[in-house]
# Entry
Amino acid sequence: MELDYVLNGTASGSVADRLLESNFDVGSLRPYIGDDNRSVFVDRMVGNELKAVPVHNATATLRKDDWKLLDEAILPIAKARLKAVADLRSRGLQFTIPNGMGKTMFEYETQSDITPAEASMDGISRSVSDRPLFELKNLPLPIIHKEFFFTARQIQASRNGGSPLDTTTAQLAARQVAEGAEKMLIGTFGQIAFGGGNVYGYTNFPNRLTKTMTAPDGTNQATTVREVLNMRKLAQDKNYFGPYALYVSTTWDEYLDDDYSSSKGTNTLRQRLAAIDGITGIQTLDYLPDKTMVLLHLGVEVARAVIGMDITTVQWDSHGGLQKNFKVMTIQVPQIRADQSLQTGIVHGTYA
# Structure
């Protein structure tokens, strides 16, 4: 086993050396051989443009087309699993941290409200002077990662035979990484605590609102509608008025897609719930625990994705260069928030 680490600004190991020398730019771990078969390049952002930058005293195994093959195999698989994460990012509910690999914590503040306005006939009487209070919080920035490898012989054989590398293992690694990011947002990844902060998701956030629901049986659709309306009311009572996303576990699917109205095939329970004012869509999340619904107020004050690094693949050598190691990794951390009164716009519904 080989161990690379960075401690107090000193690197040990080839991987740690390259990261420290490049200010933790993961591009340094994606070198490729140029068209002349001698020069080594990495792709880096120069201004607003991605450019090939030559690097010296570095070795590369893959050509640029090899990296392209890996990325084209990995990214579609990963994106397909990121339903809840993609929902936040597509709505602009995200915050990007430049060079997230070089940071372990994200600091942010919670804010209190101020007292209500007053009314008088002349406007002369003084109202209560007020200002919001702020409290500093920490959010850990863990790296979600999974490794795989090729031998140098496999890579050379693929070139000699004219056939591309088998990317099945790379796709499986990407799937595992994407599932980890999705589970972290949902709240089923497991406890993550570091530096006095915790990473929470929708179903394990301590300040979430909860609702006990009635088990569906195919005949009580109206009860489900009423209970979802109650979930919306719980959020509204905490001053979260939408828009909302409604997430459901797979156990709900057979009931949501069943007929709701007496006229067969004209209206399903899913369509009826989607018609509730404020609900922008209903989505089944594969990793949401069984018998679960989550109503989410779509606002940065409740939930957003903190992006330190999008899904990427890096490479390094071991066993004297005979084994080419790869790691699919990402920093996509949910930031689930409540105000200083511990109020939030997440309603977690479950039935026995």
